[in-house]
UniProtKB/TrEMBL annotation, chains A, B, C, D:
The lineage of its organism: Bacteria, Bacillati, Bacillota, Clostridia, Eubacteriales. It catalyses: L-ribulose 5-phosphate = D-xylulose 5-phosphate. The keyword Nucleus does not apply. One of its GO terms (biological process) is arabinose catabolic process. Involved in the degradation of L-arabinose. Catalyzes the interconversion of L-ribulose 5-phosphate (LRu5P) and D-xylulose 5-phosphate (D-Xu5P) via a retroaldol/aldol mechanism (carbon-carbon bond cleavage analogous to a class II aldolase reaction). One of its GO terms (cellular component) is cytosol. This is L-ribulose-5-phosphate 4-epimerase. Its cofactor is Zn(2+). Pathway: Carbohydrate degradation; L-arabinose degradation via L-ribulose; D-xylulose 5-phosphate from L-arabinose (bacterial route): step 3/3. Pfam families: Aldolase_II. GO terms for molecular function: aldehyde-lyase activity; L-ribulose-phosphate 4-epimerase activity; metal ion binding. Gene3D superfamilies: Class II aldolase/adducin N-terminal domain (3.40.225.10). It comes from Sulfobacillus acidophilus (strain ATCC 700253 / DSM 10332 / NAL).
Length: 235, 235, 235, 235
């Protein structure tokens, strides 16, 4: 049970970072983590203030969405998270917010183009925006359909190469190898979305940076030839 | 008298939340609450700093606007609040601010269209903007006329379905079942107004989200089939 | 000497409010006050951090600009302040900042039109913008010429009716009956400038609110029939 | 060794000022300083949080980029800094950030025109933007090529007259006579970039202020006839 307890603490911490990074108003955001060896997901309870959260409030569900631990209702976005974890085996954490700059792009129905090296350092191409859901999808299993349209939008690349998506008319989802990395990508996405907005206002519909720059910046930070940061510490 | 004292404390707290949520500059905002069983309204005194307010500064007026308790002048917007309480029997609290994003839409004379789920979660349709007041209305009982043009703009739906309005060339009023909920809706309105602005700058005059999405998000949080948040606690 | 000491303390406090209200970056702003009975002006020293200021740093000059007290150089804008005090006898305090929203309008060379009641509550008409200074004026007694172009722009109305001006390509000056009121008007101007900007982005070149609204809001707060705020306290 | 220790402490302090002035998100910025008498540069380690930095984390490299002191990898931008120190002998400190307003201009590929006196007080003309790097330059010694395109852009004027540049599609570099002055110029650049953006939105593609105003404001603060601030203190 200790691994699950560790994950609950990581998910608690990750949720608490959302107001710290000014990514959420009121309770508009949630972070989850997955423990694949046990087939369990841990997620924030629905509609509870970040300040009031304790580790025991974290809700544990299995990958079919049945509640296994916790007295609280899980986030209403739980089915979306589950679709992504089931489809993409490399995901360890997912973050959903209504952070204002990323949400403005999502509401506009526009992908965020890579307009500079800040973007390229973290996202290896545009942050895509899904199509609108159909009325049938909205009236059906809405949160599950939201997950499915994300999967449809990403196609089948490595989801960690561009660890973010905008859901049309809704807002961003980001992810990573663990819950903290999912929040880290949410912070970066918000900053990138803000700068892309102002760049387009100055130079409307400017094209993306060239592929060579995307390659250079992305591989400075990722993969075997990365040279940004410090080497992993030996233990 | 205890119910009235409770309301005075709730109105004090609600007013103090205005600078906390960065909704006001200087003293530009006020919150009131109503105690219908006694026919009394409690409201902030006019032009007093939020930090300096005490519960005894709260002004009690009857629903005709006669001061019943308190040494202070009530907010100059008192007649507007009273028109709304008299017309809409479900209102328990009203909040008026000059919060910058909502006020910018009000000054532009534009309703805030529902451009995403953040809006739809809380406002079941556009946040309307009143017509301009006529010179006669401005020169007459101006604050009362402001209330009347709000009533005219809303027509006769449930005012809690879209608990906000923009007064043309002035700013927002929001309301709720109690003073805290009125402030809560002011926080949400400001965030929604900010994101709608940036969305329209990216995608000018984008149309509203479809009715199916409005329905889905509004009824996730409201009504008998709501499934957002936690069930009410048994006592 | 006690009146002068009081003024030095008021000017110190007023200068310290500039960073508190986020009106200044680094040392880009100054406040002065005048003691007409002694023909003295007190002003911030040039280029000193607000946090480091003490009452003894305040510089006293006579109305011709000769230093009478203090070891420091007075603000380089001193000649501008002096022109305004000499021309307008009702001014008791002047504030100059490079606050970003007001400065953006000044750089654009545009008056801030009255687009709503927030403006009308405090400024009885547009906040004017001066013409550009000529090369001769710039190369001559530049700071004095800045004061003269403000006087030229205002014409001869009551300067307290619209207690603010934008200097073309430079930034705002505000004033009041004392140094604190000058800062108060700088706070309001910045908020009004921000909202006017966003209003024009939503509704380009929207016209001013009608005269009847300007009258109503201005006289709610000013003159014998004012009814905003609390009555002056008896002493 | 004491001069080098002093520089390490100055570089530490300068790096810590970056989050204080809200110029950086996460670890997106670095400051360096140079000790020309010893042929050494001190720079922030790569990818380390500002809060966690200690003086012993500072990395010392010689002007060819060989690490002389410190266990950490130096900032990945080290080769850019070195090109600038080698080319411009008056530079004592360099600062690189992804501050959002300056970066938005850099992403737009636009020089920041001098639109007001805030700009002219500190930058004696437009803040230039480099050309895009070619694919060959990007695929080659990328960080060194970044330094070279800055040198190419500046030509051979005094680099302290306009102590800032925008790298196309990347972000700003600023510099000064020491590390603190480099950060000081980064603060100013960000504020100037923000105001220039809003000025152009109000008045698209407004031309620069006239040369006479640039001269007047720049020489108020710089050179033998400067009259802003306090005289240097005798010791």
């Amino acid at each position: 049970m200790s691994e699950l307890q560790d994950l609950k603490e990581a998910v608690l911490l990750a949720n608490r970072l959302l107001p710290h990074h000014r990514l959420v108003t009121l309770t508009w955001g949630n972070v989850s983590g997955v423990l694949r060896s046990q087939g369990m997901m841990v997620i924030k309870p629905s509609g509870v203030d970040y300040d009031a959260l304790t580790v025991d409030d974290m809700v544990v569900v299995d990958l079919d969405g049945h509640r296994v631990e916790g007295d609280r209702n899980p986030s209403s976005d739980t089915p979306t998270h589950l679709v992504l974890y089931r489809h993409f085996s490399t995901l360890g954490g997912i973050c959903h917010t209504h952070s204002p700059w990323a949400t403005s792009w999502a509401q506009a129905g526009l992908a965020i183009p890579p307009l500079g090296t800040t973007h390229a350092d973290h996202f290896y191409g545009a942050v895509p925006c899904t199509r609108r859901l159909s009325p049938d999808e909205i009236q059906g299993a809405y949160e599950r359909e939201t997950g499915k349209v994300i999967v449809e939008t990403l196609g089948n690349p490595d989801p960690l190469a561009v660890p973010a998506v905008l859901v049309h008319g809704h807002g961003p989802f980001t992810w990573g190898r663990d819950p903290l990395e999912a929040v880290h990508h949410a912070v970066i996405l918000e900053e990138v979305a803000k700068m892309a907005y102002h760049t387009w206002m100055l130079n409307p519909h400017l094209a993306s940076v060239p592929r060579s720059l995307l390659d250079r910046h992305y591989y400075r930070k990722h993969g075997p030839n990365a040279y940004y940061g410090q080497p992993p510490e030996a233990s």
